Amino acid sequence: AVRASCGDRELVACIVGCETGVALADALSEELGLRTNGTEKNRRNKSVQQRCVKAAGLRAVREAVGTSWQEVQDFARGETMPVVVKPVESAGSEGVKLCHSIEDAEQHFNLLMGAQRKVGSFGAAVLVQEYLRGKEYVVDHVSRDGVHKTVMVWVYDKRPCNGANFVYFGTLPVPADSEVAKVLIEYTRGVLDALGIKNGPSHGEVMMTADGPCLVEMNCRTHGGDGTFVPLARALTGGYS
């Protein structure tokens, strides 16, 4: 049906446009024989991401994942509060909460599990993670056949607001030739390789901690925000599109 809709035009690529299309774009590109990242790994699953990064010898977040509180409670009790509780699949800080007590963590865990089951989320599970302290950066790439090109580097301006811990106030560009950007870019490209992301856009979120960069999550699609960042990026680079 996809090929038929193209008519006489050549079908050259299948590029994901938003978070919910990641799995579909991987499956379509693989089925159509186009450049693809394949479907072997569930790249939207944040726990899968961290396991792949850790296996590659890169700094990964300490975490536990489960579908019941009993599966993660020992980890939560062993961590210094606060801890982060969030869904395994989400975007834009949706469902993410900084919990300052075991009781708070358990309550939010159960809330997320209940909400995911109500909407029939496939493979629903919840993560409990160490709270990474530092500055959070964004490293955007586009890749082709395993060659990664850095598009932009940003630093988030996130603050507590209206009862939420991680509210986006904005993003600020970071010079690509700065020392922090060089470290972030090298680390992020290692993450892309660990996740098997060889083709297409990616939007990596990385915390620069006291002991170096650590993946928050890798979004296997373009930078979001409805494209509000594009005019600034284009003005800074001259070729961003």
TrEMBL record:
Keywords of this entry: ATP-binding, Ligase, Nucleotide-binding
SUPFAM superfamilies noted in UniProt: Glutathione synthetase ATP-binding domain-like (SSF56059)
Single GO molecular function: ligase activity
InterPro entries associated with the record: ATP-dep_AA_Ligase, ATP-grasp
Keyword Transmembrane attributed: no
Pfam family, one: ATP-grasp_4
ATP-grasp domain residues: 50-241
Name of the protein described by the UniProt record: ATP-grasp domain-containing protein
